[in-house]
Amino acid sequence: MRTPLIAGNWKMNTTTTEARVLASDLRGPLDSIEGVETVVCPPFVSLATVADALRRSSVKVGAQNMHYEAKGAFTGEIAPAMLADLCEYVILGHSERRHIFLEDDALVNKKVAAALSAGLKPILAVGERLEERNAGDTEQVITRQVRAGLAGIAADEALIIAYEPVWAIGTGIAASPEAAGETIGLVRRLVAELYGDEFAQALRILYGGSVTPDNIAELRAQREVDGGLVGGASLKATDFVSIVRQSAPAAG
Ligand code: PEP
User: Fold this and answer.
1) Distance 149 CA to ligand 1 centre (A)
2) 99 is catalytic
3) N or C: which terminus of the chain carries fewer CB neighbours within 10 A?
4) What's the average model confidence in pLDDT over 226-241?
């Protein structure tokens, strides 16, 4: 059975002081929940503070992005090894990176390779835009993003994928549990084509896009949905804790 994983993407929110408070508020309640892996992804500048606040806690820390180069003249960028000192996970290919900062599949692929080489666990985000969905192109877009994102990458147990339909992110309109389950099933089949069935069956694939305490239970009831990548609701400790609690195997 795959251990469910709930990751909170704090995006460009929280000062360092606020990040410490949020991490401290999450620590006790999350440590008391068994059977779910939890990760919080604060802004870069708060990684050390949050890692410190969560020391010896079960809650893991992740970054929201990184550069693929090891070092050099890349003003404002953060290298994989810098993150590996501070955290375990890194979100790559988030739709805000793809669509606001124009990251394409080839760039995301380089980042996935670099993260794995640095010993980080990449959470590769894929998802279709509204116009692509309306045009009936979801399968084609997801197929392209998964194949391109993983091109040339060897099977690695550290990998996690998040299916995040762009139209569901920050809109309050989540995908239906059935649609989320169906597309995640597609992602798993694509991964099986690349790495075989055994690997695909062990891989955790999360759903992201307006996950809340009110919809997580029905999303998790889908066999294919192994957890969530949570944006807005991860900024409120009580909401995030509720999402994690409802994701535990015993809650299902
Ligand atoms: C996200 O940032 O990955 C996300 C899913 O955001 P939200 O939960 O706010 O839709």
Assistant:
1) 20
2) no
3) N
4) 98
